[in-house]
Amino acid sequence: MAGTHGNLERDKLTQDLTTHVAALRRYALVLAGDPHEADDLVQECLSRVLGQMRAWRPVRDLRAYLFATMHNVFIDATRKRRSRVDHVPIEDVMATLSLPANQTRRLEVRDLLQALAALPEQQREVVLLVGLEGMSYLEAARVLDVPIGTVMSRLSRGREALRQLMTQGSVTRLRVVK
Amino acid sequence: MSASHSSSAVSEQDLHAFVDGELDGRRYRRVVAHLAVDSFAAERVSDFLRQQGELKALRERLDDRGYVPDSRTDELIRELAGAMRHRRRVRMGLAGSGLAAACLVSLWVVWGPPPGQVAEHLTWPPLVLNAGPQVLFGRDPFGNTQLAASEGLDGTGLDQQLAAYSVRRPDLAAYGLHFVGGNALQGGETPAIRLVYEDKDGRRVFLFVGAVGSDADVALTLVPEGHISLNWRRGSLVFALIGPKESQQLLDAMRATGEFLSPPTPPGEGEIAATAELSASVPPANAVKPTSLPSATEPVATVGHAGGTIGHPPAAVPEPSATPLPAAATNAAENRPKSL
């Protein structure tokens, strides 16, 4: 009886975690623009959280904790990547999507991904956390460990840049490297 | 309300908060009023809302494919689930323990004894425990437990060590102390005999007799608060006379006690009112014979030997510890079998 209850509890936890990890991987995919790098980021993030769990670090909101760790992992990865050639493998991301047959819609998705990739990382993070993951300003501020006013200002600038990129044809000038 | 007034009241961040549903009712209405008069702002908000729609559509397309974690990620997820489950169980255990402790404290507060009564219980243990008296005397060597004038003394250990000794109850009436009762204290391997006297004011004097070589040496020094203890040894016996500090009779009583160290003699008739025999380990035929008191008119509690006749123990050397032994007692100890 206790064993069955324990198994159910473990299965439920695994299921919840898988849902969170799916969101984490989605966020990492758009953030990094590379499916392989997204997988690496997710694994590094989970390894860190596992270490912190074993060290009895207090965790109140697991979802926010996972995204906050992902933010730190992404910053570390970005610092290492600075020496490398900057490229945005949008087509790799496109390959992971279930795109509509409509060619126009397909181009719209591609333009959006290109515009997101063109944003500064700090603005991109906020736009994705709020727009893609549906977080509130407060949640995003906790994940990024910044004041809520910083989230609002970054979001404002990021969205405005995105709007201009999408509406003024700047997207076509983005360098797309595959 | 003019357009310029509305514009000054609505910031850029308000527009984004409007898109994300982060505004309260008052600010929301203000932004709506502003958008009604500011077409440029309305157009931008429209673009932002379209952006949001596109991001949601992107999310749906990413989710449509479903996410199947690779083997490494799957392994990490399972490890993390195990760690979380462990943490949750430990926390529940701690919470349960805390709740149980809180319940116990609550029950104690509601139904437990009054604080004064608790304090009484708490003040006794240091007095009793520190000297280790329970080994010899049980819970309260100075109480009325099993106190009876004619109670049997089942003192096996004492009997074996005092095979040739008789211990008789001294008569301390001449010092204003009348006999209340006595018993054997069986708290440890070596028993002790306790005799209790009272003066006219009801203050009690205790006389303990135990065997040397046991913990009686230490335990007999235990005294209640406000009391004093006189300790001495006689051969293989240790004595303690315990009474109120202000008592002037203790030393005299001690001397009188020494006078009762005499060769055992057959009991006289009418002298057996308070006799206790060591019958548990002694066959009836060899039962202890109550002995008479050479200097007392009242019978005593006795500790005899297994042989039926009183033997002659080795000559005992007086070994006073705190108080010099009275001369009469010393002579009696040197020349005769010990009796009290």
From TrEMBL, chain A:
Domain PhyR sigma2: 18-71
Pfam families xref list: PhyR_sigma2, Sigma70_r4_2
Residues in RNA polymerase sigma factor 70 region 4 type domain copies: 111-162
Record InterPro entries: PhyR_sigma2, RNA_pol_sigma-70-like, RNA_pol_sigma-70_dom, RNA_pol_sigma70_r4_t2, RNA_pol_sigma_r2, RNA_pol_sigma_r3/r4-like, WH-like_DNA-bd_sf
SUPFAM superfamilies found in the cross-reference section: Sigma2 domain of RNA polymerase sigma factors (SSF88946), Sigma3 and sigma4 domains of RNA polymerase sigma factors (SSF88659)
Keyword Amino-acid biosynthesis part of the UniProt annotation: no
Keywords tagged on the record: Sigma factor, Transcription, Transcription regulation
CDD domains to which the protein is assigned, alphabetical: Sigma70_r4 (cd06171)
Family: Belongs to the sigma-70 factor family. ECF subfamily.
Name of the featured protein: Sigma-70 family RNA polymerase sigma factor
Organism: Benzoatithermus flavus
